[in-house]
């Protein structure tokens, strides 16, 4: 399961919030420009707002994306049909997410009381788990009861949250 460290989030966003607060303070204390009659405070207010609002919005979006990914995994682990998936083929897609390779699997999914079926599934794989991924290898899987194309692979035969 993906985790978002609150400490890292604070370390990353705090400098932007302090800079934004400084811009807002500078906007209150800025004197009017003697040539144009407008104040530099408008610029400071805009910059302060940007430095405060944008990092908070970005942090919120990151939080929601991670929550959605984790909610999907929890849903499949709790409500999914447990079965077994056999690797028919696998290849790297060329995409790396957090220095982890994304693998495209061709899987045959075997569920109790259902006919086996094949799906294509993409997933980032931990580097430690890569050596256990061979054609013909079988792994436990949770399958969405509503959409059998959605699966949660368990590479280590246990739920990795």
TrEMBL record:
The keyword Transmembrane applies. It comes from the Bacteria. The chain crosses the membrane at residues 7-25, 45-66. Keywords: Membrane, Transmembrane, Transmembrane helix. This is Uncharacterized protein. It comes from Lucifera butyrica. The lineage of its organism: Bacteria, Bacillati, Bacillota, Negativicutes, Veillonellales.
């Amino acid at each position: 399961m993906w985790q978002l460290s609150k400490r890292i989030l604070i370390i990353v966003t705090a400098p932007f919030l302090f800079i934004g607060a400084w811009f807002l303070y500078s906007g209150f204390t800025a004197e009017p420009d003697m040539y144009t009659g407008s104040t530099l405070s408008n610029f400071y207010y805009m910059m302060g707002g940007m430095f405060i609002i944008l990092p908070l919005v970005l942090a919120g979006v990151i939080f929601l994306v991670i929550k959605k990914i984790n909610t999907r995994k929890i849903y499949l682990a709790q409500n999914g049909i447990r079965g077994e998936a056999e690797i028919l083929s696998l290849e790297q897609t060329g995409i790396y997410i957090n220095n982890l390779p994304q693998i495209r699997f061709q899987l045959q999914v075997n569920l109790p009381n259902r006919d086996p079926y094949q799906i294509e599934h993409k997933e980032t794989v931990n580097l430690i788990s890569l050596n256990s991924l061979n054609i013909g290898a079988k792994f436990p899987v949770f399958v969405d009861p509503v959409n059998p194309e959605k699966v949660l692979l368990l590479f280590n035969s246990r739920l990795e949250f």
